Amino acid sequence: GDPTRLGSESPVIVHLFEWRWDDIATECETHLGPAGIDAVQVSPPNEHIALDGVDGAWWARYQPVSYALTSRSGDRAAFQQMIERCEAAGVGIVVDAVINHMAGIGEGVGIAGTPYTPFHYGDLYTRDEDFNHCGRHEDDQIRDYQDRHEVQHCHLLGLADLATGTESVRERIADYLQGLLEMGVAGFRIDAAKHMPAEDIGAILERLEGNPYVFQEVIDPGNEPIEAGEYLTNAAVTEFGYSHHLATAIQSGDLASLETLGQEKGWLKSDSALVFVDNHDKQRGHVGGGVLMHRDDHYRLALTFMLAWPYGTPKLMSSFTFDDGNQGPPSVAEEGWRTLPVHGEDGLGCLDQGEVDTRGWVCEHRWPLVTAMVDFRQAMGDAPVAHWQQAGASRIAFARGGRGFVALNLSDETWQAELVTGLPAGEYCNLLDDCVTRVSVDDDGWAEAEVARDSAVVLNAERPV
Ligand code: LAG
Ligand code: CA
């Protein structure tokens, strides 16, 4: 789970949710590499259920039919090319590995033509023993999240639960992941990790050769028997508490409550925590909501805070707009739900900031604020938080060692204040407004700062005017 495997001291990951492989390759070259983004989380690359039956729903990707690399994002050749072009641009590929289950129990044909019937998926899993049959509730479905055995051995949402405790299933999963490593991927997101015993994941990862960055998706609400901490011996783990805490702090106007974010009891330590403001599930209310996303007020402030605050490995969401929680990416239904390109013939297909009512690719990761803050985070390295200051609950400021300074104002009025920056004397640019705002720091490190409403002032010791 060591994040520095992604290539820098303070790596940043972007989730290009549902993007096609050739678009991701172009994005690595034209934007992500130059912006210093370390890795892209891609949608599951393996064969999934056909799209017609589910009206192109995004979650078709979470119903594997085989480990052939054919998906709505492209074929194996496009996937390989993407890996190579991204690597040449200095960007790693993190694969969303759906290994807890196969498709929903039923019959059909996958997007690459592989047939499946209950507990039988092409030539991959052909025996009843390849799946768990937990013996609960007559239908073997998960109902009681207080029951560890049930959560890990019954079927999640009707999805055929793989017997990850058996050697032959572990071997097939490891072969799939090893094949991806050999193609050059940098890491994995382990989907639905809570639904597999930590030991099963450990046994699969142990078989891999190479040194991938791995994070496990464990939704730990703090009141269930299965805890995020159990998975730390394997690799990094998602810290869902982070997004909720940040959303609550911002929605209640209480930025001051962020002073100890990450030090809460029971939280993962920084290097082991994968954090985000929102993810693809939470932003559309799957597995509960309670987070901020692109169309919410103050989302930019949340991103600014996350990237300024030295806790966890941050993952940025790059979304498409939606009206209902099942809707897939921008696509042409009449052509088998063909996903529309982002880099099209008429240039970049990202929506303009604020175009929230239009259908399309949101591309939050391209917002100038994000680019500036990614640069800031990487410049700060491991510089600790210092000089915490607050004025009421909605205005906070802190330094990053002697290397940087951040002031955030969530109130409705401009915040004018004398603040300790910890920076050497000089005149600095606000990184968030192209140096329109400038801040002079005196010999004692103090500055008279003016922070506009719902925005921030961010200074880097190495970016004087
Ligand atoms: C995850 N992490 O643990 C993913 O982040 C999440 O997006 C996945 O659910 C889930 N685990 C399984 O990989 C998604 C959707 C579900 C969807 C599921 C399978 O959030 O809504 O379920 O993928 O496609 C859908 C229907 C269900 C139905 C099920 C089986 O929504 O009503 O029972 O398919 O047919
Ligand atoms: Ca399971």
Quick gist of this model?
The chain is an alpha/beta fold and 465 residues long.
Write the layout of secondary structure elements.
Blueprint lengths: L12 E4 L4 H15 L3 E4 L33 H13 L3 E6 L3 E4 L3 E2 L5 E3 L2 E2 L26 H6 L5 E3 L5 H17 L3 E4 L7 H9 L6 E4 L19 E3 L1 H12 L21 E3 L23 H10 L4 E6 L12 E2 L5 E2 L3 E2 L2 E2 L19 H13 L4 E6 L4 E6 L3 E6 L5 E6 L5 E4 L8 E4 L4 E6 L3 E6 L5
Parallel strand pairs: 1-2, 1-13, 2-3, 3-9, 9-10, 10-11, 11-12, 12-13
Antiparallel strand pairs: 4-8, 5-6, 6-7, 14-15, 16-17, 18-19, 19-20, 20-25, 21-24, 22-23
Bound molecules: ligand LAG and calcium ion.
Ligand LAG binds next to loops.
What does it look like?
Helix content is 20%, strand content 22%. The protein is an alpha/beta fold. It folds into two domains: 376 residues, Glycosidases (TIM Barrel), CATH 3.20.20.80; 78 residues, Golgi alpha-mannosidase II (Immunoglobulin-like). An eight-stranded parallel barrel has the order 1-2-3-9-10-11-12-13, surrounded by four helices. A four-stranded antiparallel sheet has the order 18-19-20-25, with helices on one face. Helix 4 packs across helix 5 and helix 7 packs parallel to helix 8. The chain is globular and about 75 Å long. The structure holds ligand LAG and calcium ion.
